[in-house]
Write a structure and sequence with these properties.
The complex is a heterodimer of chains A (92) and B (216). Helix content of chain A is 66%, strand content 2%. With 92 residues, chain A is mainly alpha-helical. Helix content of chain B is 74%, strand content 3%. The chains are: A mainly alpha (92), B mainly alpha (216).
C-alpha cells in the first residue's frame, strides 16, 4: 500500500467519521450502551474514575469531531511508533 | 462495553490484568516477523480507524446503543496476535486519554474486547473463512461481541457473588441483560464488519491476495 493510498484511506475514514458523527448526534447521543443500560437496570451508578483523563469525547458535534481527529492521530502515531520499536526492530 | 472503575470486585480486576499482560506478551512475541514489519502502517491505520468508529454509537432499540468494537475486523485483516495488540492499544488510549473505561478495569476490558474478541474471531474465521468468507465474517463479528458481553456478564455476576453485593451486578440481571443487548449490537457489528471488509477488499486487493495475510 503506497503513501497516496494511505492518504486517500485517511481522508475517507475522516469523511465517514464526519457523516457518522452527525447520525450519532441525531439518533444515539442521548442513550447509553449495553453495559450502561445493564447498570441502570440493576440500580448501579458509575463512581468517580480513579484517574482523571485529560480529554473527553465532547458534548457537541464540533468538540466530538476534534476529539475524534485527535484520537485518530494519537492512535496512528503511537501504533506506528510502537510497531517500529517493538515489532520491527526485534523481528527476526 | 467499557467497564468503569469501581464496578468489579478488585481481585477480579487483578485477574484481568494478569491474563491480559500475559496475552499481550504472547502477542508481541508472535507478531515479530518481517511481514509484520511491512504491515505496521496498516496496523496503525486500522487502530486509528477503529478508534473513531468506536465513537459512533448506533441505536439498537429500547433506548440502548452499541458501537463497532472492531476485534473481528482487525483479526480478519491481520490475524489474532497483531489484532490483539491493535485492540489493546485502542483500549489503553481510550482509558488514559479519554476516560473511556476505568484505568483499574483496563485488564478486564482488554480481556473482554481484545483477547476474547480477537480469539473468538480467529476461531470462527479461521475455521470457516476459507469457504464462506462473508458468512464467516458476519458470524465472527457477532460472536466476538457476544463472547465479550458473556465474559463481562460473568465477571459482573462473579463480582457480586464474591463481594456479597458490594461490587458487580447479580448474575440473574447481568446475564440476560448483557446478552440481550449485545445479541443486537453484534448484529450491527456483523453488518458493519462485512461492509468494511468488502470495501477494503477493493482498496487493498494485494493484502487479501497474500497467502500470509493473517500474520499470526
Amino acid at each position: 500500500m503506497n503513501t497516496t493510498r494511505y492518504g486517500l484511506a485517511i481522508v475517507g475514514i475522516i469523511i465517514l467519521f464526519a457523516i457518522g458523527l452527525e447520525l450519532f448526534f441525531l439518533f444515539s447521543a442521548e442513550y447509553g450502551d449495553g453495559l450502561e443500560k445493564t447498570m441502570e437496570k440493576a440500580g448501579v451508578t458509575e463512581g468517580e474514575p480513579v484517574f482523571k483523563a485529560p480529554l473527553d469525547y465532547g458534548d457537541d458535534y464540533a468538540s466530538a469531531f476534534l476529539a475524534g481527529l485527535l484520537g485518530f492521530a494519537i492512535l496512528f502515531l503511537v501504533a506506528y511508533g510502537l510497531g517500529r520499536v517493538v515489532i520491527a526492530r526485534r523481528a527476526p | 462495553m467499557h467497564i468503569p472503575d469501581g464496578l468489579m470486585w478488585p481481585a477480579l480486576l487483578g485477574v484481568g490484568w494478569i491474563v491480559s499482560i500475559g496475552m499481550v506478551w504472547y502477542a508481541v512475541r508472535k507478531t515479530r516477523s518481517p511481514l509484520a514489519r511491512e504491515r505496521i502502517p496498516l496496523m496503525a491505520l486500522l487502530g486509528a480507524g477503529i478508534f473513531v468508529a468506536q465513537m459512533l454509537n448506533f441505536p439498537v432499540g429500547g433506548g440502548t446503543t452499541g458501537h463497532l468494537v472492531g476485534a473481528a475486523l482487525a483479526t480478519i485483516m491481520l490475524g489474532f496476535a497483531p489484532a490483539l495488540l491493535v485492540m489493546t492499544l485502542i483500549l489503553i488510549v481510550q482509558a488514559l486519554m479519554f476516560g473511556d473505561g476505568g484505568v483499574t478495569a483496563l485488564g478486564l476490558n482488554i480481556l473482554n474486547m481484545a483477547v476474547i474478541g480477537c480469539g473468538v474471531s480467529q476461531l470462527i474465521y479461521g475455521r470457516f473463512g476459507g469457504s464462506m468468507k462473508r458468512g464467516a465474517t458476519i458470524a465472527a463479528a457477532w460472536a466476538a461481541v457476544f463472547g465479550g458481553a458473556l465474559a463481562c456478564a460473568i465477571e459482573l455476576g462473579a463480582s457480586y457473588w464474591a463481594s456479597a453485593g458490594s461490587y458487580g451486578i447479580p448474575m440473574t440481571v447481568a446475564l440476560p441483560s448483557m446478552l440481550g443487548y449485545h445479541a443486537l449490537i453484534g448484529a450491527g457489528e456483523g453488518i458493519l464488519t462485512a461492509g468494511i471488509i468488502a470495501y477494503l477488499h477493493q482498496l487493498l486487493p494485494e493484502i487479501f491476495a497474500s497467502p500470509g495475510r493473517q500474520l499470526a
